[in-house]
Write a structure and sequence with these properties.
Helix content: over 70%
Number of strands: 0
Number of domains: 1
Structural class: mainly alpha
Number of helices: 3
Radius of gyration: 11 Å
Largest sheet: none
Shape: elongated
Strand content: under 5%
Distance between the termini: 33 Å
Length: 51
């Protein structure tokens, strides 16, 4: 059960990061800090968005 909740929280963090990336006003580092994701995870989301 815990892994399901963890996965849902992670998806929520990714959605926040995607929205912040779309907004384009914050740096990768700021998005990582505010979303709770790592810088590498935010960069991966950015690359997926660009692809």
């Amino acid at each position: 059960m815990s892994s399901v909740v963890d996965e849902m929280l992670k998806e929520g963090k990714k959605e926040v990061a995607r929205r912040l990336l779309t907004n384009g006003k914050l740096s990768i580092e700021e998005i990582a800090e505010y979303s709770g994701l790592s810088i590498d995870e935010v960069k991966q989301l950015q690359n997926e968005k660009s692809a």
